[in-house]
Design a protein that fits this description.
Number of strands: 9
Strand order of the largest sheet: 2-1-9-8-5-4
Helix content: 25-40%
Shape: globular
Order of helices and strands: HHEEHEEEEEEEH
Radius of gyration: 14 Å
CATH topology: Nuclear Transport Factor 2, Chain: A
Length: about 130
């Protein structure tokens, strides 16, 4: 009988991101983890491995002087997918403000986060904010 997947990796990653706990995020990411960032900004693309993913998030925090933050409303798990209803992403940078709703979709496996797809309410606003 197939085992129901656990939402623990998704919950752990999200809690780590919301509370800036790098070690907790590292525990559910590995070299095979893959993050997909949509859009046309300099951040768009794919990031493979926990080090690259956490490095990107650290760089985003640095670019925003630490104002970059997530708020979360829930994690829903079905089969091998977890949908993190993000709530909001908020940041300030170079006189620009970002305040947008978004959703993360995660693929889970073997107690790890395998892939992350990020979707924003208004991709144009996100692209303008992150454009250098």
């Amino acid at each position: 009988m197939p085992r129901e997947p656990s939402d623990e990796p998704a919950q752990a990653l999200w809690d780590a991101l919301v509370h800036d706990r790098v070690a907790a995020a590292e525990a559910v990411l590995d070299d095979a983890s893959l993050l997909h960032i949509p859009g046309r900004s300099g951040l768009a693309g794919q990031y493979q491995g926990g080090e690259a993913i956490l490095g990107l998030l650290g760089w985003m925090a640095e670019l925003t002087d630490g104002t970059f933050q997530f708020s979360r409303s829930s994690v829903i798990t079905a089969n091998d997918r977890a949908i993190v209803v993000q709530g909001r992403t908020i940041a300030a940078r170079d006189g620009k403000q970002l305040d947008t709703d978004g959703v993360l979709v995660l693929s889970l496996g073997d107690g790890k986060v395998r892939e992350i797809w990020m979707y924003h309410q208004n991709q144009g606003d996100v692209d303008r904010f992150w454009t250098v």
